[in-house]
Automatic annotation (TrEMBL):
Residues 160-190 form the PAS domain. InterPro entries: Bact_Sigma-Reg, GAF, GAF-like_dom_sf, HATPase_C_sf, HATPase_dom, PAS, PAS-like_dom_sf, PAS_fold. Keywords: Hydrolase. One of its GO terms (molecular function) is phosphatase activity. It comes from the Bacteria. Residues 267-286 are annotated as: Disordered. It holds the Pfam family PAS. SUPFAM superfamilies: GAF domain-like, PP2C-like, PYP-like sensor domain (PAS domain). SMART domains: GAF (SM00065), PAS (SM00091), PP2C_SIG (SM00331). This is PAS domain-containing protein. One of its GO terms (biological process) is regulation of DNA-templated transcription. It comes from Streptomyces naganishii JCM 4654.
């Protein structure tokens, strides 16, 4: 009968195997199946690896609890990959090989197992039964003579303390009261950490908070009793679930010297001396090798590992490499006795290729590296001759390699290899756990970094600012210095556009150095590639500078001033330099160059992050280029639609104010013009095309050029507008209706000016007389671009000296503030205050009144044309 079930799905990623192991371990511990957890985790790991790594599909894990034990099913979505069914025994190969051991382990460890197929899934299942043992029995220890039994007080007291999921004490038995002097009501509800003096016993590396989160734990610590003294205790913790499913921890505690009551027997490694197990009552092989407390960070753990490995085998150097996710390369992460800075994060292939690591998957002893050069590429040129290397493996998967080297030959044998392998097995899981934790932190930081970078790059369309942002985001987060090369077009050479170093004093030196060497080739292949030219050039320049300075034999001041910057530049640029292409819209638009100081390498995770950033930066840089080009083209075209400088008209003052709505627009749907027609006659126009933006500006250009051409051909105002109307209608779907005020102006000898105007659907022009009265100067007629047949006529207006003719577009009269609108009456009111002002002053006052009428920026184009006949000066 199934009494409980738990299920989870895992993506086809390498890290899913570790997640599946944790899921099964936590589930079985919660069910109280601690005796079969290890076997279940091993089998699950193998089967999930087959699914997500080898089959390349997602894996579904189902745990079923029954009275007898647990059944675990692992399903993948690759049913075509069948397991052959044979009646005879099948030879599944060696158990030491790297893959294909899942079913072999099922046959060896599981009570029952099998494989089931559906059209879409393959399901491998196994069942593990609980061992039959009396309730309360943990393990059978050896029979000891009476004189070897542990000493205890007259009565052994076992304190039973229960802790809830928040760490507070919920139960406290009588033995606990006797041992520590607190009554139950004194401690109930208090955190156990308030009573614990942690750590107390030397050699303890786990804090109490961490211990209480573990499924099972044993170890020593101290409890501060009611009398104030610390009582050393040995504790056994076990996490359980109550009927409501909430986790809690049961702690059993005895006096430290009575630890034999609770302590589980130690497991002695195969081939080891059983007598050594009694040397320390709580010896942990991991802590014996690493020491206590163990470093809580990956770099500290790796460095401690290589130091202890070197000391254990009395070597001159030691090193540790971690495998990449695909296990094809090893990356140097820690070393001692070697030039570690030069090698840190360097990579070597495992199986094939130049400089391969020939013995990573099995223990290996090399008596003399001079006989087999290149067997361990890390040691090339270091003077080391003998070396022993062993793999770090977790669940059969290669996770790294640990090696110890000596300057003499023949220093190591298979015995040292076995000792080192035993130590590697003790620390492999801890190293892998720390590595996965570091990788998770890096990935989270990378996601946060890329989100912030995308926001910053998307916030600008300025090319120079985009270049600066690219450099500032890479330095110092990804590299010590960077340079950005840009390519204008396919026929252009790469141009050094930006250089940045975390030390600003070195920027000029790097820029000068890079300007003297050929830029990297603009190869579109994605990914980072090493560029050795800057480092070589820096070292050569430093060498030449040093030789010149020494040959001069001058004062220290001269040597310092000539050699200092060059040596500093060489140190800054002399490390690893990589180039990433900036590819946008299938074209290489530049290169992002990243550099490290002397003898440093880039981590693969950093290069992958830089590649992701380069893709985003390339698109942002190309967008900035396109925006700049299109802005320049737009502005050039818009300026071509504006009339040239206004002509000077004897006897008439003219002023124009033009404002196009929208950011970056110089021309919109409103337009104006003033031009000579023939001797003594001038044409003027002010119009408004329906809409704004480029479409309206196109009709604007058509109207302005057509007006000039037709007027100079001798057509009168009505004829000019009728022909313009036909031209607009000929545009078809692109046509826009147009309101237009067109007129012709003749200055008169008596100081007045005669005008003939046609107002086609446009706001009427206003005439301001000297006495301050304002009146319309024309009558409304049909607008253009709507009807084919128009019957237009012109009206004659005479401006006396001192009179002003004001022409505006509807962006002026329709200026709004909420429900209020300036309107024709509001405009007339403002114009009445302009008596005696020049044409320029009139136009400026009208514009100020329009701007102040509302607080928001204008949303429509505006044009103001003011013409004034000056007063006759009395003699």
């Amino acid at each position: 009968m199934i009494t409980a079930r738990a299920a989870a799905s895992f993506e086809p990623l390498g890290r899913s195997v570790a997640t599946a192991r944790s899921f099964v371990r936590d589930t079985l511990q919660g069910w109280g199946f601690g005796d079969i957890v290890d076997d279940a985790v091993v089998l699950t790991s193998e089967l999930v690896t087959n699914a997500v790594v080898h089959a390349g599909t997602a894996a579904d894990v189902l745990c079923l609890r029954s009275d007898e034990g647990v059944r675990i099913e692992v399903s993948d979505r690759y049913p075509e990959r069948e397991v052959p069914v044979q009646s005879a025994a099948v030879n599944m190969g060696s158990p030491d090989r790297e893959g294909g051991r899942g079913l072999q382990l099922c046959a060896a460890l599981a009570t029952r197992w099998g494989v089931e197929y559906t059209p879409t899934h393959k399901n491998v299942w196994f069942q593990l039964d609980q061992p039959e043992r009396p309730v309360g029995t943990r393990a059978a220890g050896p029979c000891l003579p009476a004189d070897l039994l542990p000493l205890a007080d007259g009565r052994v007291r076992v304190a039973v303390v229960q802790i809830d999921h928040g760490g507070a004490i919920t139960a406290w038995n009588e033995d606990a009261e006797e041992l520590f002097g607190y009554a139950a009501e004194q401690v109930t509800g208090k955190p156990l950490t308030d009573l614990a003096a942690w750590p107390h016993t030397p050699g303890t590396g786990t804090g109490i908070a961490e211990a209480l989160r573990l499924s099972r734990w044993e170890g020593s610590y101290g409890i501060r009793g009611a009398h104030g003294r610390v009582i050393p205790v040995y504790a056994s913790h076990l996490r359980v679930r109550d009927t409501g499913g909430e986790p809690s921890t049961v702690c059993l505690l005895v006096r430290d010297h009575e630890r034999a009551v609770l302590q589980s027997p130690l497991r002695v490694p195969a081939g080891g001396d059983a007598g050594t197990a009694s040397d320390g009552p709580s010896t942990d092989p991991f802590e014996v090798f690493i020491g206590s407390p163990a470093p809580d960070d990956l770099d500290g753990l790796l460095q401690r590992t290589v130091e202890r490995a070197r000391d254990m085998l009395d070597g001159d150097a030691a090193f540790l490499l971690l495998a990449t996710d695909d296990e094809t390369e090893l990356e140097v992460r820690a070393s001692t006795g070697l030039p570690s800075a030069r090698q840190r994060f360097a990579r070597v292939p495992v199986e094939a290729g130049p400089g391969r690591y020939g013995s990573a998957r099995m223990p290996a002893v090399h008596d003399d590296l001079t006989v087999s050069p290149g067997a361990v590429p890390l040691l090339n040129g270091t003077g080391m001759r003998s070396v022993v290397t062993v793999p770090l493996k977790v669940e059969g998967r290669l996770t790294g390699s640990l090696g110890v080297a000596a300057e003499g030959s023949g220093r190591y044998s298979n015995e040292e290899a076995l000792r080192l392998q035993f130590a590697a097995d003790r620390i492999a899981l801890a190293v892998e756990s720390a590595r996965l934790g570091e990788l998770e932190r890096l990935r989270r930081g990378s996601l946060s970094f890329l989100v912030e970078a995308s926001d910053l790059l998307a916030g600008t369309l300025d090319r120079d600012q985009t270049l600066a942002l690219m450099a500032q985001m890479t330095v110092p987060t990804l590299a010590t210095w960077c340079a950005v090369y840009t390519i204008a077009d396919q026929a252009s050479e790469p141009y050094l556009s930006y250089v940045l170093h975390e030390d600003e004093e070195l920027i000029d030196g790097i820029k000068s150095l890079l300007s003297k060497i050929a830029p990297p080739d603009p190869v579109p292949t994605p990914g980072a590639r090493v560029w050795s030219a800057p480092g070589e050039a820096a070292h050569q320049a430093a060498l030449r500078s040093s030789m010149r300075s020494l040959s001069l034999g001058d004062s220290h001041h001269r040597i310092g001033t000539t050699i200092g910057p060059t040596l500093a530049t060489a140190a800054a640029v002399g490390g690893e330099t990589v180039v990433l292409p900036l590819v946008a819209r299938n074209r290489v638009i530049g290169m992002l160059t990243l550099g490290k100081p002397t003898d440093e390498h880039f981590r693969q995770e950093i290069l992958e992050l830089a590649e992701d950033l380069s893709r985003r930066a390339a698109l942002a840089l190309d967008n900035a280029r396109l925006y700049s080009e299109r802005t320049a083209i737009s502005q050039s075209l818009q300026r071509s639609l504006l009339p040239p400088e206004l002509p000077q008209i004897d006897g008439v003052e003219v002023e124009v104010i033009y404002r196009a709505a929208g950011e970056g627009n110089e021309v919109g749907g409103d337009f104006y013009d003033l031009f000579p027609i023939r001797d003594g006659a001038y044409g003027f126009a002010i119009g408004d095309v329906c809409g704004t933006g480029p479409e309206a500006a196109a009709v604007t250009g058509l109207a302005r050029h057509a007006l000039r051409l037709l007027a100079r051909e001798g057509f009168g105002g009505p004829a000019v507008l009728e022909r313009l109307n036909s031209a607009i209608l000929d545009e078809g779907a692109r046509s826009r209706f147009l309101t237009l005020l067109y007129g012709e102006l003749w200055p008169q000898e008596d100081g007045s000016a005669r005008l003939k105007v046609v107002c086609a659907g446009h706001p009427l022009p206003l005439r301001l007389r000297q006495d301050g009265t304002v009146e319309p100067a024309a009558e409304p007629q049909p607008l253009l671009g709507v009807m084919e047949d128009l019957d237009l006529y012109e009206q004659t207006v005479t401006l006396e000296p001192g009179d002003v003719l004001l022409c505006v577009t509807d962006g002026v009269t329709e200026r709004r503030e909420g429900t209020r609108m300036l309107g024709d009456d509001g405009l007339a009111d403002v114009l009445t205050t302009c008596t005696g002002l020049t044409a320029g002053a009139v136009a400026a006052r009208i514009m100020r009144a329009v701007e102040r009428f509302a607080s928001d920026a204008p949303s429509d184009d505006m044009a103001i044309l003011a013409m004034r006949v000056p007063e006759i000066q009395k003699q």
